[in-house]
Amino acid sequence: MKKIALALLAAAFAASPAAAKAKHKAMTAQEKANAKAMEVNYQSWRIIRDGAPLLLPSWAIPIYFGTHLDEKLAPKKKK
After folding, report:
1. CA 37 to CA 33: how far, in whole Å?
2. Which end of the chain offers a freer environment for a tag, N or C, measured as fewer CB atoms within 10 Å?
């Protein structure tokens, strides 16, 4: 009896991560439209952000590029 109980406990413990895994739900039309709008907004912001060195005085350009250096040197995370 103890062996059966231990076997059931081990099976329940092994199955718990599979039961806790979140299910992916499909995006609705509204969510897709929101995601597309956010992408357009991000692209517009990126143009402004990347164009900032054109407006900075010459003494501020090394400071600007030094602040964003860590973003370029950071290792990329794989999905």
Report:
1. 6
2. C
